[in-house]
Design goal:
Blueprint: E1 16-17, E2 28-29, E3 32-36, E4 42-49, H1 57-75, E5 81-88, E6 95-102, H2 105-112, E7 117-122, H3 123-128, E8 135-138, E9 144-146, H4 147-150, E10 157-162, E11 174-179, E12 184-188, E13 192-193, E14 199-203, E15 212-216
Parallel strand pairs: 3-11
Antiparallel strand pairs: 1-2, 3-4, 4-6, 5-6, 7-10, 8-9, 8-12, 10-15, 11-14, 12-15, 13-14
């Protein structure tokens, strides 16, 4: 995924280790991971590698914090994004993780890229914003159903994500894991529910515009 401003130059795909992150995420993360709480706040663990010939870890942290401060100033919201931590992989490689918290999904998608979509809200709110029209699959048995068949309870919550268009130099595959505040009941095509409750999906050049829908049990 493209990063806000100069962050695009610092990231690529990498596997790295996290220690004591204090969030509902595994110790080992191999892709960017989003944690969404019941209020819609987002914690993003953006993983990648950086070229040490251009940046040191401390220089990268300064750069990330400057970008966050600039974004908050532009948005006129001091808590729109907060850089929690910038750390290196424990395996001694070039992997890094940038942990940021956002006051909502709108701030996340605006900070990351203009054509990236992240929505969290009720089914009613999703319908009001024009979402829907996708085939959903039962998270437990894989049975297919139309969105209109499973989205009858308007008070239930849904997470919707789409990475937007690809940019030159991006990896051939872009993976994402999402931890939702409630258990997934239905997911859209291509998504997989993991043992820890997270939902994962991989995008390629062939399905880059395909949205990920996660209908939650409440």
């Amino acid at each position: 995924m493209k990063r806000y401003g100069r962050l695009a130059a610092a990231f690529g795909a990498a596997a790295l280790l996290l220690a004591g992150c204090g969030q509902k995420v595994p110790d080992r993360i191999e892709e960017t991971t989003l944690v969404i709480n019941s209020k819609g706040n987002v914690t993003a663990y953006m993983v990648g590698e950086f070229d040490k010939s251009y940046y040191s870890l401390s220089e990268l942290e300064v750069m990330v914090r400057e970008e966050a401060a600039r974004f908050c100033g532009s948005a006129k919201k001091s808590e729109a994004v907060k850089v929690e931590k910038v750390s290196a992989a424990q395996d001694g490689g070039s992997g890094i993780v940038v942990e940021c918290s956002f006051d909502g999904t709108d701030s996340y998608q605006d900070f990351m890229r203009k054509d990236e979509t992240l929505f969290y809200g009720t089914v009613a709110e999703a319908i009001q914003q024009g979402y829907g029209g996708v085939t959903m699959y039962d998270a437990e048995n894989g049975t297919a159903a139309l969105w209109t068949e499973v989205a009858g309870e308007l008070g239930k919550h849904v997470v919707i994500y789409c990475p937007g268009g690809r940019t030159e130099g991006e990896a051939e595959e872009t993976g994402l894991a999402i931890y939702c505040p409630y258990k997934a009941e239905y997911v859209s095509e291509g998504a997989g529910v993991q043992k820890d409750g997270s939902v994962e999906m991989i995008w390629t050049a062939e399905n880059v515009s395909q949205p990920l829908y996660i209908l939650l049990k409440k």
